[in-house]
Write a structure and sequence with these properties.
With about 120 residues, this protein is an all-alpha fold. It has helices spanning about 1-15, 35-115. The chain has two helices and no strands.
Length: about 120
């Protein structure tokens, strides 16, 4: 039953396409648009240009997506290294305070030791 319905549908699809070759001076057997071969060449060229432009648009969209992904990666890396730099600066500050305190302590001990030697 399904095969019969499919055959029936596809048969009428084939018959629905009216393509008639007309020569100059002949009348068309149906209503529609009639173009000469030069105009058809222009239509085909426009169609080819449209396809090329669509391909270029797809390529540009892909490139834009790639650039956006790279930009996001670079921003994330920048944020990571910025936080690492802040951590290093913070550690460096406290390390310098510790070294200063150690120097003061060592100097104080040296002075105390030199006073006891006299």
């Amino acid at each position: 039953m399904i095969k019969f319905i499919l055959l029936f549908v596809f048969t009428f699809n084939v018959f629905a396409q009216n393509t008639v070759l007309l020569n100059k001076g002949e009348s068309a057997p149906f209503d529609g648009v009639l173009s000469d071969s030069d105009q058809m060449k222009i239509y085909r060229q426009s169609n080819e240009e449209k396809k090329l432009l669509q391909d270029k648009v797809l390529t540009l969209k892909d490139l834009n997506a790639t650039i956006q992904e790279r930009s996001d990666v670079y921003k994330a890396e920048g944020d990571y290294y910025r936080s690492q730099l802040r951590t290093q600066e913070f550690r460096g500050f406290w390390a310098n305070v510790g070294y200063f305190a150690l120097g003061v302590l060592a100097t104080s001990l040296a002075i105390k030791a030199s006073e006891n030697v006299r």
